[in-house]
Specification:
Elements: H1 32-52, E1 98-102, H2 108-121, E2 130-132, H3 136-143, E3 153-158, E4 164-177, E5 180-192, H4 201-214, E6 220-225, E7 234-242, H5 245-250, H6 262-268, E8 280-282, H7 288-299, E9 304-306, H8 310-317, E10 324-330, E11 337-345, E12 348-350, E13 358-359, E14 361-364, E15 368-369, H9 374-387, E16 392-396, H10 402-405, E17 411-422
Parallel strand pairs: 5-6, 14-16
Antiparallel strand pairs: 1-3, 2-12, 3-4, 4-5, 4-9, 6-17, 7-16, 7-17, 8-10, 10-11, 11-14, 11-15, 12-13
Helix pairs in contact: 7-8
Bound molecules: coenzyme A.
Length: 440
């Protein structure tokens, strides 16, 4: 999942979002001792409830809160692989009325069923104003990379009506953590129908996908979530750049800043009509080797990043209409490919608005600058996104994105995205700028 806090604050309102967040104890306060004892008691209480709060995740090979910051624990797999013959051969039990299915995402019918489940039940923002609306083409792209396993596309149906009520997926990926490239599953699209929530179905879905991943002799996974679970490897934030500020304000995605009028706001976010970098063009099939080289070289600097080969780059980065867009800079003299930027398309349904039904959002994906300053490259990405009719351009604070976020008038979102690894320990929490991975 990408972002469960879709709403943004315009830069004009971002001056000091939480001035009280660093409260210190006032030495002149006669209640000081009381306050600090209270504070300590609260911390102990919090830590006890925290450790009791995750009945399921406590049983899994993931970093546990109690082990955070314990340098004696080694980095790497938490549990060794078990012999394949010892992996449970039958699916986990579901409550009586439900049955497992393997979803054939090659078929239009199955894609439509999955699309409908997610369009009605997947991630919403905290105020239930927007819900992700991954397109069918996007789902087929996201779920069928090189080497994908159909058995990792898992659904749950009601036996009698055959209605699809839950979903979870994995796709294979090689992910490097420091110097080690690990075969992993990227887990995504966990969704339980709204009417079946809080019945502990999610842990069964997670255990089943884990079992099917194990059957392929893969023992690690990467995933992201808006919720805090044991234990994030990094906590990242979404930033939003208005491209169509009037619509964003009309649908309640953003607010007019203090002392701002609509026309001043529109002017603030105005962009040139076409990219300014000479040699900036759409990526084509023949660019795959050069883009792969550029990207592999670039991603080396991050602690956790995908290990992309040419097949991966062709799948994940070659432009696909309304799914993924990629542009590069080709030197006019040498014809070398010196820079690259990309974004994927993930609209959100606007819930209950008279005038608008969807918000068209671009999400920054992988960007590499060697010759063109990153700021200029990303400004060109904004220009093409605006031209293609996107309402907003979103980016996480991962990789080197901090370099351009404020400067290009992105405003911080109000939620965080947590990154996780399953059965792999890192003994330090990573700064977002140490992460070179974007999950869809
Ligand atoms: C996420 C969702 C499937 C969880 O289902 P649920 O019915 O709310 O919760 P259940 O009773 O089945 O299971 C609760 C357990 O799942 C865990 N869980 C909840 N959301 C999770 C997530 N996104 N990833 C992993 N585990 C999650 C809970 O932490 C809890 O385990 P714990 O006791 O160890 O803490 C459901 O709320 C949903 O479909 N939400 C909308 C889509 C969404 O947010 N998907 C996740 C995108 S990352």
């Amino acid at each position: 999942m990408a972002d469960n806090n879709v709403s943004s604050t315009p830069p004009a309102e971002n001056q000091n979002p939480n001035p009280n967040s660093n409260d210190t104890i006032d030495p002149n306060n006669s209640n000081e001792t009381e306050t600090s004892i209270d504070a300590i008691a609260q911390k102990v209480q919090d830590s006890m409830t925290l450790s009791k709060r995750h009945k399921f995740w406590e049983t899994q090979p993931v970093g546990q809160f109690k082990d955070s910051g314990n340098p004696s624990l080694p980095e790497g797999p938490i549990e060794p692989p078990t012999p394949l013959s010892e992996v449970k051969q039958e699916p986990y039990n579901l409550p009586g009325p439900y049955e497992w299915i393997t979803c054939d995402m090659d078929t239009k019918e199955m894609c439509s069923e999955v699309y409908t489940l997610l369009a009605n039940n997947y991630v919403e923002d905290d105020e239930n104003m927007f819900r992700f609306n991954y397109s069918k083409d996007f789902l087929q792209w996201a779920l069928r990379p090189p080497g994908h396993y159909r058995s990792w596309h898992i659904g749950v149906r009601v036996k009698t009506s055959k209605k699809l009520v839950a979903f979870i997926t994995g796709v294979p990926a090689r992910i490097r953590a420091r110097d080690t490239v690990v075969s992993m599953a990227e887990i995504n699209f966990l969704c339980v129908h709204k009417k079946l929530r809080s019945k502990r179905l999610a842990p069964v879905m997670i255990k089943e996908v884990t079992r099917r991943v194990h059957l392929e002799n893969i023992w690690q996974a990467a995933y992201t979530a808006g919720v805090v679970l044991p234990t994030p490897i990094s906590t990242c934030q979404y930033w939003h750049r208005s491209l169509n500020p009037k619509k964003l304000i009309d649908v309640g995605f953003s607010r007019l800043g203090a002392r701002m009028t609509m026309s001043r706001t529109i002017k603030l976010y105005k962009l040139p009509d076409s990219p300014i970098t000479p040699g900036f063009r759409k990526m084509e099939l023949h660019d795959v080797p050069a883009v792969t080289r550029l990207l592999r070289g670039y991603l080396k600097q991050f602690v956790v990043a995908p290990d992309f080969d040419e097949d991966d780059v062709e799948h994940w980065l070659l432009p696909k209409e309304d799914v993924v867009d990629s542009f590069l800079v080709e030197s006019c003299e040498t014809h070398d490919i010196t820079d690259f930027c990309s974004f994927y398309t993930l609209p959100s349904t606007v819930i209950g608005n008279q005038n608008y039904s969807t918000l068209k959002a671009a999400y920054s994906y992988y960007n590499v600058s060697t010759k063109t300053p990153l700021l200029q490259l990303m400004n060109d990405a904004l220009i093409v996104a605006k031209k293609k009719g996107y309402d907003v351009f979103n980016a996480l604070d991962v990789m080197e994105n901090e370099v351009f976020l404020k400067e290009l008038k992105f405003g911080p979102g109000d939620g965080q995205l947590q990154y996780y690894l399953y059965n792999y320990r890192l003994n330090q929490t990573l700064r977002p700028s140490e992460l070179g991975l974007v999950l869809l």
